[in-house]
Amino acid sequence: MSDTLSPAGSDDTADDAARTATRGTSDRVVPRVAAPVKLRSSESGESATGNFYEQIGGHETFQRLVELFYRGVANDPVLRPMYPEQDLGPASDRLRMFLEQYWGGPTTYSERRGHPRLRLRHQAFKVNPEARDRWLSHMRAAIDQLQLPPLQDATLWSYLERAAHALVNTFEE
């Protein structure tokens, strides 16, 4: 005896067959290959197309994100001393190029600076939990001002949180 389990709310029987699991005589569930998931980029339901870099607006969006972020860093008593240049412009350019490349944009960062090596590049600085939290606070404020669609906001924020936690290299005050 074999009965088929169909996903709830499915309306296309041809696709149902490709997405279902079948119970064999041993009552073991045998998974089938799932049909591609169509991502939505907004609450109104438009399909997301292109890579993440393109979905959120490309260079202009990353430029704005980094500008907004460094406005907060410029006056932060913990983070500002970590930037050796008087002008934050070069640091801003490096972060923008890195983020653009990471999310599918131009590979300018690697062409100019080589492999990102984030932990190695930040090793000279005291990145403790307080510095991480301040960095994340400025980045969260910058992302909020972009008003990205929820999926893209969550995707970007998740990566930045993981990266910030990974860069902590001391627990000293």
Task: Characterise this structure.
This protein has helices at 13-19, 52-55, 58-74, 89-102, 108-113, 118-122, 129-146, 150-166, and strands at residues 4-5, 21-23, 29-30. It has two domains: 1-37, no CATH class; 52-166, Globins (Globin-like, Orthogonal Bundle), CATH 1.10.490. The chain contains eight helices and three strands; from the N terminus they run E-H-E-E-H-H-H-H-H-H-H. A three-stranded antiparallel β-sheet has the order 1-2-3, with no helix packed on it. 51% of the residues lie in helices and 4% in strands. By secondary structure, it is mainly alpha-helical.
CATH architecture designation of the largest domain: Orthogonal Bundle
Rounded to the nearest angstrom, the radius of gyration is 22 Å
Q: Please, how many domains?
A: 2
CATH superfamily of the largest domain: Globins
Shape: globular
User: N-to-C terminal Cα separation, in Å?
Assistant: 66 Å
* Fraction of residues in β-strands: under 5%
- CATH fold label of the largest domain: Globin-like
Return the structural class: mainly alpha
Please tally the helical runs, counting DSSP H or I stretches of 4 or more residues. 8
Largest sheet: 3 strands, antiparallel
What's the average pLDDT? 82
**CATH class of the largest domain, please?**
Mainly Alpha
